Amino acid sequence: MNRRLRIEESAAFHREAIAEVVSVIAAQDGATWADACRPGKWSAAEIAQHLILSYEVPLRELGGGAGLALVLPWWKRAALRWTVLPRILAGRFPKGAPAPREVRPKGAPGSPAEAAQKLRAAADLFATQLSEAHAARPVRLTHAYFGRLTAPQILKLLAVHASHHRAQFPGEKEAARRLPGPSPAVHNRASPKTKGTRE
CA-to-CA distance for 197 and 72, rounded, in angstroms? Predict the structure, then answer.
């Protein structure tokens, strides 16, 4: 029962965050959809694709396939779980975090409407299947920098991650004021050379 209550709290937070970012994506200007939001940054289309991949990869792992690859030794993952993860779960996503290789956009949806539909479908499917699996047994999925996370942790992290990226879309400079939970960080200062590798 306690496990179910925790997942329901994370799921509610996640639903709100995804509804907000899907609405923002759907309202994007198709004429500038593929243009970089700022020099050296992802375009709105690439941000949307990154968010979609952020659900498709753990969904694959939940189904028994490969998830995110671990990129740090155990002791660094343990340190980040104690220092960085609690801040993310409180709503503060770190600036400049490198995006794991598996979720870096290599293509993008052709239009804001297509991206909004794909993100909504991927997020809803993942949340539903994760909650169903969690009701039957304890579930842990892999994060590249934190290692194995519980279902409530994963859902909360993905919600904060979506809110973090919502603030990067054109017209959303002040979005952090309206996001669920504490204000997330704004996009990193990646140079053009590192475009497409950082959050």
Answer: 17
Q: What is the CATH number of domain 2-194?
A: 1.20.120.450
Q: Quote the CA–CA distance of 52 and 105 in Å, as a whole number.
A: 9
End-to-end Cα separation, the chain, in angstroms? 35
At residue 137's C-alpha, the angle toward residues 135 and 141, to 5°, is: 100
- Number of Cβ within 10 Å of residue 3's Cβ equals 15
For the chain, where are the E strands, in sequence order? 140-143, 147-150
Q: What is the mean pLDDT of residues 57-65?
A: 97
Structure tokens at 193: 């050379």
pTM for the model:
0.86
The secondary structure of the chain in percent helix, strand, coil, rounded to multiples of 5, reads 55, 5, 35
What pLDDT does 172 receive? 81
